[in-house]
Structure prediction request, 173 residues.
Amino acid sequence: MKAIVTTALALPLLALAAAQARPGGADGGSAVPAAAAREGVRVSRAGSQASTKGPAEWFTGVVRVDPLFAANAPARGAGASVTFEPGARTAWHAHPLGQTLVVTAGVGRVQGWGGAVQEIRPGDVVWIPAGQKHWHGAAPTTAMTHLALQEALDGKVVEWMEKVSDAQYGTQP
Prediction:
C-alpha cells in the first residue's frame, strides 16, 4: 500500500519536474523569474536560527520550535522541526493551503475535526488538507518530533482556534 501511495504522490511531481525542465518551462515562458535565476544556491546551516518555545496560546505542554526555512519568493513554503514533550500538543488549527508532517522521532497523535485520533510514528507522513481543522502532538508518555511543512496564502500560514481538551486528547487511537 505504501508503494502505491508513494508512486501516486511521486508521479505528479515527476511530471511537474519534467515540464519545468523543458526549455521555457511548462507554459513555454521563463521557468524561473530572472531575479531568482541570478540568486544562486543558498545553504541554511543547522542551528543557525534560534529555537523558540511554543506559545501557550497555541500549545498545551512543552513544545520547542526549530525554524528550518522560510519562504523564498516566488516560493511560499516554509518548514520547522517541532518537538513535543509527552502530553504536549497544538491547539485546534487549520492551514489555508494544507500541511505536511513528517514524523522523525517518538510517538505522536493527530486528529482531524470529526475524525478519529490516529497514532503516528517515525517515517509516517501526514497530509492535512487545506482548511481542515486539526491538532497534532506527542503521545501521553512519549515525546514526538516532526517536520512541519506548509505554504502561505496571502501571507497567512495558519489560523489558530481553541485548545484541544484533555478529553479530546485522551481518546485512544
The domain at 53-155 is CATH 2.60.120.10 (Jelly Rolls). Residues 2-21 form the longest helix (20 residues). The chain has three helices and 13 strands. Residues 1-28 have pLDDT under 50 and may be disordered.
